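Archive maintenance. Older records in this collection stored only the sequence; we are now back-filling the structure field for every entry so that each record is complete. The fields below show one back-filled record exactly as it appears after the update. Entries are processed alphabetically, and NMT1/THI5 like protein is next in the queue.

ARCHIVE ENTRY
Title: NMT1/THI5 like protein
Organism field: Pelagimonas varians
Length field: 337
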Amino acid sequence: MTHLNRRRALALMGGTVAAAGLAAPAYAQNKTIKVGALRFTSHSASFIALERGYFAEAGLNVEFEFFQAATPMAVAIASGDVDYAVTAVSGGLINLAEKGAIKVIGGALSEEDGIDGQKYLASDAAFQAGVTSCAALDGKRYAVTQAGSSFHYMGSKMAQAEGIDLSFVPLQKVGAIIGAMKSGQVDGWSIVPHIAKPLAGSGALHIIGNVADYLPDYQVTTVFTSAKNAADERGQTESFLNGFSKGADDYAAAMIDGTADQDAMVDLIHKYVYTDRERAKAAPSIINGTMRINKGAALNLASIQDQLDWFQSEGLVDAGISIDQLVDTSYVEMIGA
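Back-filled structure field:
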């Protein structure tokens, strides 16, 4: 089984720089593991599982390592510096899976009918010049973190549906994209609602479409680990997924279904998200970020296949990579399989 340091993992990525159905937890005897995360509301299942003791109940002592983008997380998983993480499928992640370094083992954030999801945005300069719909982005500059990122996928799929051309501009980090959008250096972008809505509410940017209109049931993020953990640490991996799934259930109860205390949930999430803001100012953005985190970490395999097909069609990953190289289907329920 491949084990990589971070330098080797980056090299293998080439030019692209990425519960229902669960068994009872296999107790891991208080083993310390590292979990990669972004300080986004969409990563709340892991935060809840730690704060409410679900990881501890499963025999895991969890330490978080925080990142600013998906690709470094994929590298950290491949190198063994981090054990589990949640992130979008990217060209880099697929390339590492082809090399036998990582496996997708479950699903996390999803677009779901009836739940307000990710948005397509226009800069104020573009909007004032007539870019009031996604179709009007024809020929415009569209921001992505990197070529082969989920932003690239969302923009390209929208452009294909509208029959338009976009000029993709890689800006590496979300903060850099926000700055470029505000200054009018780029014209369009897509992002999760807890970032999109406040920006639109301030008038700095404008919402011009919904990602779900172009990508219904899009599996936005996945749970993944090293191929070694997936193959050789089954008990530990099941324990992690079990704790994660309990966190997702609590999140849905409070933030979507209205069957649990939302204020208490916002207090918990605020320990990790928008920590530089006082609670009163952070709460609206945390609430705006509410999207479905799949029950039981179920994975929409049909959506993952569509993403893999797109990366291959764009020449961003090898045409011979199979879904079996990317996904270990033995851990959770597969939707659309």
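Update note: The chain is about 40% helix and 20% strand. The two ends are 27 Å apart (CA to CA).
Entry marked complete.
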